[in-house]
Design a protein that fits this description.
The protein has 110 residues and is mainly beta. It contains no helices and 11 strands. A hairpin with a 5-residue loop joins strand 4 (33-38) and strand 5 (44-50). The termini are far apart.
């Protein structure tokens, strides 16, 4: 299993980002996928989950301003976060069970 995140960067408060996770090594279309983040000095926090049929679940901190989606043709899961806040600063990880990507850094600062 390989999970490779991309799309992070430095964004001003109020801005948006679209993160991507390219997955391989398993039957992507049959599997739920999760985004988790870890802020400096804090534990990991669930951001969003998408089921194999497209059902979604969001963490309270991003609910209403995030969209998780999947593209089964390219084995990719995306996370769009709008109205970014400084407290969204974290490393964002793609996760499947015991497998983790290397993470992508999101920094929200003016």
């Amino acid at each position: 299993v390989q999970l490779v995140e991309s799309g992070g960067g430095l964004v001003q408060p109020g801005g948006s980002l679209r993160l991507s996770c390219a997955a391989s090594g398993f039957t992507f279309k049959d599997t739920y996928m999760t985004w988790v983040r870890q802020a400096p000095g804090k534990g990991r926090e669930l951001v969003a989950v998408i089921g194999h049929l497209g059902t979604t679940l969001y963490g309270d901190s991003v609910k209403g301003r995030s969209t998780i989606s999947r593209d089964n043709a390219t084995n990719t899961v995306h996370l769009q976060i709008n109205n970014l806040k400084p407290e969204d600063t974290a490393i964002y990880y793609c996760n499947l069970n015991m497998y983790w990507g290397q993470g992508t850094q999101v920094t929200v600062s003016s």
